C-alpha cells in the first residue's frame, strides 16, 4: 500500500472522528436546551449565537456577502444585519427541537397562535383542485415550517433538502424532518428523479432555490453573477405544472407569518415551453425581493456569487 493511500485513509478516519465528536457535542447541547421551556430555550440560543457568531471563521464570509449585496449600506448597518442573521440561526437551530409545538396554526380556528398564514385561500384552492404543483422558497426565517403548513391543508409535498456534511447529524436531522414534514429527497445525485417521480404520481414538490449550483445557469442575484440550479424550471417545463412562491417571515414575540403567493407565471420561449434561463433569473428576482425585505432572516454564510477566478461564460 502506497504512502499516499495510507495518508488518505488516515485523513478520512480523522474526519469521521471529528464528525462524530461534533455530532455528540451538538446533540448534547440540543438535549440541554430541551430541558428548558420552549421560549426560554429559543431566546437563549438566539442570544448565544448572536454573541459568538462574529467570532466564528464563517463571519468573514457573512460580512463579505453583505457588503457585496448592499454596497449602499455603511459598516454599522452591515454589522447589525450580520448580528441579526446569527440570532436568526440560533433560533432556527433550537426550533428543530420544538417543530411540533411551534406549528400551532389551525385553519378552522380563530385563535391567534405562534403562526399566521397569508394566502390561505390559495392553499384551499390547490387542495380542492387536487393537481400537482411546485412550491419554492429560500432560506428565509424558519423555512422548515412551510411543508408542515402545506400538510395542514391536505397537500402532500415531497421536499428537496440539502443534508449537512456531517453524516451523523444528517441522519438524525432526516429522521426528525421526515416525521414532521412528510416525504424528503436529499439533494444529491438522483434527487431530480425523486422529484420527477413524485410529480408523475400526482404529488406536489418543494424546492429551495437560493443555493449555489456549480453547474448551474449563469444569472444575477443582487446585480452580481451567480450560478442557479435549473432543476425547478426544467421540472415545470417537463410536467407543465404551476409554480408557487412561499416564504416564512419572523415576527416579534417569537411568531411567524407563512406567505403563499399566487402562481409565478414562468417565461416561455418561441415553442411555448418554459424558458429555463429566464425562469432561473425570475426565481432569483423573487428571492432577492424577499431578502431585501428582511435581510437579517436570510443565511449569508455561503459563497453565493461567482468569484473573479471563475468564467461566467462556461
Automatic annotation (TrEMBL):
- Indicate the principal place this protein occupies in or around the cell: membrane
What are the entry keywords?
Acyltransferase, Cell inner membrane, Cell membrane, Membrane, Transferase
What subcellular compartments does it reside in?
A: Cell inner membrane
Q: Which domain of life is it from?
A: Bacteria
Spell out the InterPro entries in the cross-references.
Answer: LipA_acyltrans (IPR004960)
One GO MF term on file is:
acyltransferase activity
Asked if the keyword Transmembrane belongs to this entry, the reply reads no
Listed PANTHER family: LIPID A BIOSYNTHESIS LAUROYL ACYLTRANSFERASE, LIPID A BIOSYNTHESIS LAUROYLTRANSFERASE
Question: How is this protein named in the record?
Answer: Lipid A biosynthesis lauroyl acyltransferase
Say which species the protein is native to.
Ahrensia kielensis
Amino acid at each position: 500500500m502506497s504512502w499516499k493511500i495510507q495518508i488518505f485513509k488516515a485523513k478520512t478516519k480523522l474526519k469521521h472522528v471529528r464528525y462524530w465528536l461534533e455530532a455528540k457535542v451538538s446533540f448534547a447541547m440540543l438535549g440541554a436546551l430541551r430541558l428548558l421551556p420552549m421560549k426560554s430555550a429559543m431566546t437563549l440560543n438566539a442570544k448565544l449565537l448572536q454573541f459568538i457568531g462574529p467570532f466564528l471563521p464563517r463571519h468573514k464570509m457573512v460580512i463579505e456577502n453583505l457588503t457585496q449585496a448592499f454596497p449602499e449600506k455603511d459598516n454599522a448597518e452591515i454589522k447589525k444585519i450580520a448580528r441579526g442573521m446569527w440570532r436568526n440561526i440560533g433560533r432556527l437551530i433550537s426550533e428543530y427541537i420544538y417543530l411540533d409545538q411551534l406549528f400551532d396554526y389551525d385553519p378552522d380556528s380563530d385563535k391567534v397562535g405562534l403562526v399566521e398564514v397569508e394566502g390561505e385561500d390559495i392553499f384551499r384552492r390547490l387542495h380542492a383542485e387536487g393537481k400537482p404543483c411546485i412550491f419554492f422558497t429560500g432560506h428565509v426565517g424558519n423555512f422548515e415550517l412551510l411543508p408542515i403548513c402545506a400538510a395542514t391543508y391536505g397537500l402532500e409535498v415531497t421536499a428537496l433538502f440539502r443534508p449537512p456534511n456531517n453524516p451523523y447529524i444528517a441522519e438524525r436531522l432526516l429522521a426528525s424532518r421526515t416525521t414532521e414534514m412528510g416525504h424528503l429527497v436529499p439533494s444529491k445525485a438522483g434527487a431530480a428523479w425523486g422529484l420527477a417521480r413524485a410529480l408523475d404520481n400526482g404529488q406536489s414538490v418543494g424546492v429551495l432555490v437560493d443555493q449555489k449550483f456549480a453547474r448551474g445557469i449563469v444569472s444575477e442575484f443582487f446585480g452580481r453573477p451567480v450560478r442557479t440550479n435549473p432543476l425547478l424550471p426544467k421540472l415545470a417545463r417537463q410536467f407543465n405544472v404551476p409554480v408557487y412562491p412561499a416564504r416564512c417571515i419572523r415576527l416579534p414575540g417569537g411568531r411567524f407569518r407563512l406567505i403563499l403567493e399566487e402562481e409565478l407565471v414562468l417565461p416561455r420561449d418561441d415553442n411555448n415551453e418554459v424558458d429555463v434561463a429566464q425562469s432561473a433569473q425570475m426565481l432569483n428576482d423573487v428571492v432577492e425581493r424577499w431578502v431585501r425585505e428582511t435581510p437579517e432572516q436570510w443565511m449569508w454564510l455561503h459563497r453565493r456569487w461567482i468569484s473573479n477566478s471563475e468564467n461566467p461564460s462556461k
